[in-house]
Design brief:
The chain is an alpha+beta fold. The mean pLDDT is 88. The strands form 2 sheets. It has a 4-stranded antiparallel β-sheet with strand order 2-1-5-4. It has a two-stranded antiparallel ribbon with strand order 3-6. The chain is globular and about 45 Å long. Helices cover 30% and strands 18% of the residues. It has 7 helices and 6 strands. The longest helix has 14 residues.
Length: 195
């Protein structure tokens, strides 16, 4: 898999500059009315799930690209449910982001799974702060730097951890446009437990 990442970096520019690995806190998603039934089913016990591996520009990001590669099969998207929560999220992520990676769907999902597996995901207490989540993530992943991590929240809930990676999947500083919300470092957050 490292060879696939390296070939992306060494090959022709795929039209983007780096990757953003988005890890959603699944229980916060499930706390909302629009949470996916498959992802939020009792007994799934999901905490951080892969929201996606997204191509990024230094300023902005591509989305909904017209890909030369065939879209993923239902089998390929369903196979991602173990780390993405549902095959539906895998399909949506391919359509919005993966289509811009200029690679076959199978390679995109394999690279996404590899990137997700590279990150040690710490336990998060039910009451926390963005700074505490970032500190725990950095402690569990010494190769990451604070400049490559963004914690997001909404309505007092932990939403996502976003990690910026270069084309070889090594940590790098996030671009200035990586979505940063009103998630102040000292803001009290809930991180609901898995259903």
């Amino acid at each position: 898999m490292a060879a696939l990442a390296a070939s992306l970096a060494a090959g022709p520019a795929a039209g983007f500059d780096y990757w953003l690995l988005a890890l959603s806190w699944s229980p916060s998603w499930c706390a909302e009315a629009d949470g996916a039934p498959e992802q939020c089913a009792p007994g799934r016990d999901l905490d951080f799930v892969l929201h996606g591996l997204w191509p990024q520009y230094e300023d902005g990001w591509p989305e909904y690209c017209e890909a030369d590669a065939a879209p993923p099969s239902r089998r390929e998207t369903a196979a991602m449910a173990d780390i993405m929560g549902s095959g539906g999220l895998a399909w949506h992520t391919w359509k919005k982001h993966g289509s811009c990676a200029e690679m076959a769907a199978a390679d995109y999902f394999a690279l996404s799974r590899f990137a997700f597996g590279m990150v040690s995901r710490p336990r998060v207490p039910a009451r926390t702060t963005p700074a505490s989540v970032e500190k725990a993530l950095l402690a569990a992943n010494p190769d990451l730097g604070a400049e490559s991590v963004v914690v997001t929240c909404r309505d007092g809930l932990l939403r996502e951890v976003r990690i910026c990676l270069d084309r070889n999947l090594s940590p790098r500083a996030c671009g200035a446009d990586v979505v940063r919300d009103d998630c102040r470092p000292d803001r009290a957050l809930s991180a609901p437990p898995a259903p």
